[in-house]
Amino acid sequence: MFVSEKKVEVRYADTDQMGVVYHANYVVWMEIGRTQLIRDLGYDYAKLEEMGYVSPVIDLSVQYKKAMRYGQTATVRTWVEHHDKLRTTYGYEILHEDGSVAATGTTVNILVKKDNFRPVPLRKIDPAWDAKYHEIARTK
């Protein structure tokens, strides 16, 4: 299974009044991880947008395990959990520097035409990218 990793420094602005990372920032880090995975595979999400496509999140799940705090460095691990005709499920682990799990999660993304939001299979836009996702998906 192909897993991408991206380090993210926890900034003071990422924390809440309790001094821990505000829960929504984990979702931002998942997006950073997803972008890194795509880049690591040799593809470019920005080019999809230039071609008139976007990839909205249609489902999101996050499980918080152990709080992160200012000054720490998170490692965002991202992989393709499942990929089918229209949906890609990405899996995530956000780790502390000692390897303990801060959060886990998934997002389900689809690809749509930017002007009308109609779903479009990735294989119609970039067959090689689609084939790569099928190859590396954890579940077939």
Description:
It contains four helices and seven strands, in the order βααββββββαα. The chain is elongated. The chain has a single domain, classed as Thiol Ester Dehydrase, Chain A (Roll). The strands form two sheets. A five-stranded antiparallel sheet has the order 1-4-5-6-3. A two-stranded antiparallel sheet has the order 2-7. The model has no long low-confidence stretch (mean pLDDT 96). The protein has 140 residues and is of the alpha+beta class. Belongs to the 4-hydroxybenzoyl-CoA thioesterase family. Keywords: Hydrolase. Pfam families: 4HBT_2.
Keywords:
hydrolase; Thiol Ester Dehydrase, Chain A; 5-stranded antiparallel sheet; Acyl-CoA thioesterase; HotDog_dom_sf; 34% strand; 140 residues; alpha+beta
Q: Architecture in CATH?
A: Roll
**Shape assignment:** elongated
Estimated helix fraction: 25-40%
Low-pLDDT segments: none
* Main sheet strand line-up: 1-4-5-6-3
Return Rg in Å.
16 Å
* Number of separate helices: 4
The CATH topology assignment is Thiol Ester Dehydrase, Chain A
Largest sheet: 5 strands, antiparallel
Strand % is 25-35%
Please write the string of helix (H) and strand (E) elements: EHHEEEEEEHH
Report the average pLDDT across residues: 96
Structural class: alpha+beta
- How would you name the CATH homologous superfamily? Hotdog Thioesterase
Query: What is the total domain count?
Result: 1
Specify the CATH class. Answer: Alpha Beta
